[in-house]
Request: fold
Amino acid sequence: MSASILQLVLSALPRSPLRLESMDCHCNQPGWCKTYKREMLGRLYEICSGKCPTERPCPHPDYIAMYKEQWAREADPTAKPKPDPVKLPCTHLGAPTGERRLCPSCNGHVEVKVLMCSVHGECTMARKAEGLVCCRVCGDYQEPPVSACLLSK
Reply:
């Protein structure tokens, strides 16, 4: 079996009607938002538009996406939540090294696990850390064969 079969299976999974990429902020100023059908004032407008002052920076993009998903559900109660994208562990990914590195894009003091990588030596799985490649955005990411996925269950 090949990775293309896995892609075919994953593509058959139901998709959510929410499309966040089409729900970018189109408001020029705080006030009524036609996209989310709500008042966007103060911090809500800052988060939605991405226009946060330096003394109060915007949250991580993952949190902004969660806000927008919630606002979209409130605007259209019949919409289902967007499922998390399915991404299997990379075939190059190895065991944890035991080391942790500070996540520069996370709020607060968040550390990410460092893992062995047969291509890059060391990496992280989901969050970027200084000096390391992140599987989520790595150009060398390679899905495991379908047979390996089925055997691991």
About this structure: The chain is about 25% helix and 20% strand. The first strand starts at residue 31 and ends at 33. The chain has two domains: 20-75, 93-151. Helices lie at 3-11, 43-49, 61-75, 146-151.
